[in-house]
Amino acid sequence: xxxxxxxxxxxxxxxxxxxxxxxxxxxxxxxxxxxxxxxxxxxxxxxxxxxxxxxxxxxxxxxxxxxxxxxxxxxxxxxxxxxxxxxxxxxxxxxxxxxxxxxxxxxxxxxxxxxxxxxxxxxxxxxxxxx
Length: 131
Fold this sequence. Notes:
- The chain has helices at 3-19, 23-58, 63-92, 105-127.
- The protein is an all-alpha fold.
- The chain starts with a helix and ends with a helix.
């Protein structure tokens, strides 16, 4: 059930018990409220599934996709491309100064965060707690 409905269920049960003195009628109202809450939860899950399907159709994946490629490109420059450029400049005998290094500390933070999130997701999928 949705967290807000879980929090309100005991409170609503108490209010219903005070407002409706007949126990059978109060139980019917509680059951009907639980059915409506289940319907709302099912509607929310259908909407989330529909959104996930549309996201999968696009093939992009939203913000994480862009952040991932930004991280890959900046780390590729810091680890590979810059060194190749310096090597090529040295071989050519050019007097051009080498390209500036990047401060990779921000990229490492982003990379470890993204890897951590993907690890948590893989763990949840392996346990079957997240679909």
